[in-house]
Amino acid sequence: MPDFSKTLRVLLSASTVIGVCALSQTPVHAEDAAPDQAVLDRGAYIATASDCIACHTKPGSQPFAGGLKIATPMGDVISTNITPDPDHGIGKYTEQDFEQAVRHGVRKDGAYLYPVMPYVSYAGMTDQDVHALYVWFMHSVKPVASAPAETTLVFPANMRSAMAAWNFVTTKEEPESGDSSTYDPLRRGKYLTNALEHCGTCHTPRNFMLSEKQDRYLAGTSLDGWYAPNITSSKTGGIGNWSEDDIVAYLKTGHANGHAQAAGPMAEAVEHSTSHLTDQDLHAIATYIHQVPAMDDDMEHQARDSFGKATEALDIRQSAPTRIDDLTEMDGQHAYDANCAACHGQTGMGTKDQYAPSLFHNSTVGSARPDNLIMTILHGVQRKTEAGDVSMPDFSGHSDVQRLSDDELAKIVNYVMATFGSGDPHVTADQVAQFHKDK
Predict the structure, then answer these.
(1) 397 vs 378: CA distance, rounded Å
(2) 262 close to 312: Cβ distance less than 8 angstroms
(3) b/e per residue, 182-202, with b = 16+ CB within 10 A?
(4) What's the mean pLDDT when you consider all of the chain?
(5) Could you tell me what percent of the chain has a pLDDT over 70?
(6) Taking the CA atoms of the chain, what radius of gyration do you get in angstroms?
(7) Per-residue confidence at 10, pLDDT binned at 50, 70, 90?
(8) Residue-level pLDDT at 34
(9) pTM score of the predicted model
(10) Which spans in 254-312 are helix H?
(11) Which H or E run includes 432?
(12) Who's near 375: CB < 8 A, 6+ residues apart?
């Protein structure tokens, strides 16, 4: 039988949202009197901070029209159309219907949403911000008359009614009150981190009921092949050695020099959400993160970004050129030289501007867990911010650049971590195979 626990964990971990004041029980329509521009601007900002577009927009399709597939062992969860189209989207939702979906996980027809929509975090949103979000969706988002495929999971995950019991026992954010824009920096940072950006959804481990472990808040956990790291104030397991400006730079650009680079789900969060926040809000998040109680890690006993140094550039070229039809698999050093050194350098220093980052003083290479290095090589890096576009090709079996076998990829991981990072993790080809999303 499929592993329902694993499926629900995936549903709980994915980054998403659909996103009131006295709640209106009459749907708002775009042709109605235009609301105050300040409300629309606020709603647009809340939608960005909550990263609505990331999961409700299929690549190449209309914004918020849904259709994005989130793979689970029991089938694909298909994100819904949340444009104000009355027949295929949320155009018939009243403000009260909208609030029930956003903060309680119950859609208009009374069915329960899967917690791939992190309503347990959005439960903390203020009435004013939910109201602004609703008004913005109804007045500013273009209606799209298309219906994504229905989510069809196998038993028992297809029983949405089971979510009622889970909702009863899980821990949700308490709704904040007042005008969130007037909060002091620490309170504003807490509100952004917990309610809007829903950081705990990915970075907090879960108990046997798959609720977030409040006693391990932001202490790190696995996420669909990636490892969402410990981001508490621990100086060994977390990011306690980062400055406030380091955190701001990372959230704004996806890169903190000498610390880390965003890839995978975090790159998406930076691209679609945190890079668009005001500097004031980014500093508020950093202020709050800095005071989160330190949680040490069972595996990380030294700061992940403190490992390694530049190595001597050894000339490993042979007197005879390598033939293009020679399919003999290389060892780790030769595979690194052939596929990685052109960008990261034989010494591991990266490019001068760190577009291709250094492999030492790098939290991915310095981690005791090889997960994120494996995933980065398998799936590459793509993120766009105002600071520029960052791209690294993938080296999977579907690569348009160079297709590496699982054994070659394992050898590169072992070589890179042994040479520039925390030490050889002795990754095998069979372990790499477990990280393929298409398997």
Answers:
(1) 8
(2) no
(3) ebeeebbbbbbbbbbbbbbbb
(4) 88
(5) 87
(6) 23
(7) very low
(8) 75
(9) 0.88
(10) 264-272, 279-290
(11) helix 429-433
(12) 225, 226, 263, 264, 435
